[in-house]
Amino acid sequence: MGSAVRGISRPPVASDSLSAKTLLADSLKARTQSLHREAEQSGVIAGILRGTASRDSYVLFLRNLHPVYMALERALEAASARGRLFGLAQPAVYRTASLAQDLSNLWGATWQSALPVLPAAERYVRCIEGAALGDAARLYGHAYTRYLGDLNGGQVLRRLLARRFDFAPDCLNFYDFPEIDSLERFRITYRNAIDQAPLPPAGFRAAVEEGALAFALNIALSRAIDALEDAGQPAYDG
Ligand code: HEM
User: Fold this and answer.
1) Are the C-beta atoms of 117 and 202 separated by less than 8 Å?
2) What are the tens digits of pLDDT across the range 69-81?
3) What percent helix, strand, coil does the chain show, rounded to 5?
4) What are the backbone dihedrals phi and psi of residue 7, each rounded to the nearest 5 degrees, phi first?
5) What is the pLDDT of residue 103?
6) Of 28, 96, 104, 105, the residue nearest 68 (C-alpha)
7) How many CB atoms lie within 10 A of CB 81?
């Protein structure tokens, strides 16, 4: 499964933990199913699926995902260093660096100063930072939403973007996982790591609700990008 994948050792499961009965990833999936449909059918994501999104709005979308992933990966590393979140802090699935590569190739070296971070992305970052506090249980909801999303629907987006904008491979690093041999196997392993979360009932419920919040934050960001486009405002003053 590639050298960069950290071992996922089975942690002791708390006897009174709900996870023994209902697995966390399945609960997250059930709780976010309708939000997943809404995410596909709204904002710049829907625009990409329909082939109506502009290159500018796609670039601005990536620009605003960058601080989100930076916050998430920083939080996962910090929690993992504290002996929490077994198996979730996986550099092989991290996106911050690949986003920076795509933004440099799509926009140029000045993307960080030239492209704005929208309030919807700042709100998302603050939520992740809040979720990292205490037992960091809520980070399970954020990791599930972004990384399982990237490992699933992200591959659909890659094909559409390559065709729609004729992007060269070096503009699609966000969808590539060079350190992962089998995306399918990794998807299962990562989902198992979420299912093995040694969370007490309150932490389990908080993680599920945070997953729903993470979807809502993604939808709000996707819509904010689209609203700029609809308002005919340039995504950025290039
Ligand atoms: C371009 C639009 C999208 C498409 C075509 C798409 C497609 C898919 C597909 C086919 C699956 C596998 C479903 C299954 O195994 O039952 C999936 C899973 C998932 N998607 Fe999406 N998706 C899209 C957008 C999103 C967005 C925007 C998010 C969140 C920000 C997201 C988060 C997820 C998650 C978390 C899963 C894993 C479900 C699980 O295994 O529990 N997806 N997606």
Assistant:
1) no
2) 999 999 999 999 9
3) 70, 0, 30
4) -60, 145
5) 98
6) 96
7) 9
Neighbour count for residue 153 (Cβ, 10 Å): 15
Shortest-distance Cα residue to atom 8 of ligand 1 = 153
Q: What is the CA(109)–ligand 1 centre distance, in A? A: 31
Ligand 1 atom with minimal separation from the 29 CA: 41
- pTM, to two decimals: 0.91
Q: pLDDT band for position 131 (50/70/90)? A: very high
Atom of ligand 1 nearest to the CA of 214: 30
pLDDT in tens, 93-128: 999 999 999 999 999 999 999 999 999 999 999 999
Ligand 1, residues 48, 152, 210: which to mutate, most atoms within 8 A of Cβ? 152
- Domains of the chain are 36-230 (1.20.910.10)
Q: Distances in Å between the alpha carbon of 177 and those of 29, 155, 183?
A: 23, 11, 8
